[in-house]
Design brief:
The chain is of the alpha/beta class. The chain is built from 2 helices and 5 strands. A hairpin with a 4-residue loop joins β4 and β5.
Length: about 100
């Protein structure tokens, strides 16, 4: 995880949200985030479980950068990246390069 200067376009402070509702609220915010924009997550504990869930449910769609890493406060940038281009119908995953 890289350390960058804060530049997110949105912010969510999960310390103000009931623990059982935190992940759901973060996923709601990420769903509405345009590609290229970022969400700053502020938390009172390490975001590893949330990050693992995001990466599992949306592989390759988000980049992560730490602004602050505990022990009392964590600030994390979650940036939505563009979806990978889908191969053309009828072609292999390499766009036909493997077929000669």
């Amino acid at each position: 995880m890289a350390t960058l200067a804060p530049t997110p376009t949105a912010r969510i402070d999960v310390r103000e949200i009931a623990p059982h509702a935190r992940h759901g609220r973060v996923f709601e915010r990420l769903a509405g985030l345009p590609s290229g924009d970022a969400l700053e997550l502020i938390s009172d504990h390490g975001p590893s479980p949330l990050r693992a869930r995001i990466e599992r449910q949306h592989p390759g769609r988000f980049d992560f950068a730490a602004f602050e890493a505990g022990p009392a406060l964590w600030r994390l940038e979650i940036r939505k990246v563009a979806a990978p281009a889908k191969p053309e119908s009828g072609s292999c995953c390499s766009g036909g390069a493997c077929c000669g």
